[in-house]
Write a structure and sequence with these properties.
The chain is α+β, with helices and mostly antiparallel strands and 345 residues long. Helix content is 51%, strand content 16%. It has a five-stranded antiparallel sheet. A four-stranded antiparallel sheet has the order 6-4-3-7, covered by helices on one side. Helix 5 packs antiparallel against helix 6 (186-202). It is globular. The termini are far apart.
Length: 345
Amino acid sequence: MEHPGAGGINSSECENELGEEMMTEEFKANTMVEMPFATIDIKDDCDITDIPQINSKRNKENQCIKSDQIKKKKKKHKDNQPNYFLSIPITNKEITRGIKILQHAIIEQDKRLAKTMVGDGSFHVTLLVMQLLNEDEVNIGIDALLELKPFIEEILQGDNLTLPFEGIGTFGNQVGFVKLAEGDHINPLLEIAETAKRTFQEKGILIEESKSFKPHLTFMKLSKSPWLRKNGVKKIDPELYEKFISHRFGEEILHRIDLCSMLKKKQSNGYYHCESSIVFGEKSGGQPDDAELVRLSKRLVENAVLKAVQQYLEETQNKNKPGEGSSVKTEETDRNGNDSDNNRK
């Protein structure tokens, strides 16, 4: 059996050295690919100080990229936020009076909740939530609402749709609402909501997607008073409304659907800014109120202006078509005439 001499190389040592060299190269390669995370670990664990400047520069670059991504996500979220909705206004004073008694009873038990209450002028049932970014899109929304009317009339078949409200419910103990009682009115209301969604989507309007339509009448929201959470109020205590669990608040007959803004200034009666409305049933034959007259007038003026602009554009285009040929011929005639005159001279 041979033994290596002083200048000899042991095969196992050679393999070890080769393996260590390969591991070192692989480690360096991984270090360069996995920046900055690998280098952070290397610096902390092994105290390697020959690449901290690269780490620092790349860390700053990655932090900037991450910051930009967060800003873009926030902007995207803001851009996708709904700002308009279809509303069934609550006009029955019996319902309004009952909800005000409920709100007063809750505030008597916890005065901190006073600012979470929805004003009685704002009571409504939401049919559809959407995003309209400018006046052009608002006008498209108005057109969609007007187109929706005959579809709803077909669903109603000349009958009134009566919506009875009974009992209390919450969404995650954060939003308190009066429930819509069960009954034959549910299916036509769901059909109206689905038809509205389809009509607005066909116009290209961005609709907020939801798992299911749950009609309700909101009377309080903890989100209206954010400081409550800091003061320990994180949910609506069911004991606050237990006496109203089975209370019958009254019935609302569907007679109007409004296209409302979430952000524009509310009307003097507390109801939302309304762009346009469609009216059904017995009240549709009555005299329109002042707000409705203003909306109708605005719509008529807009339509008249739009029609005038379209007519002007059509007339201008018609004049230009034959005129272009005539002007060319006239210019050619003038040039020929000038050439003849020059030849005579």
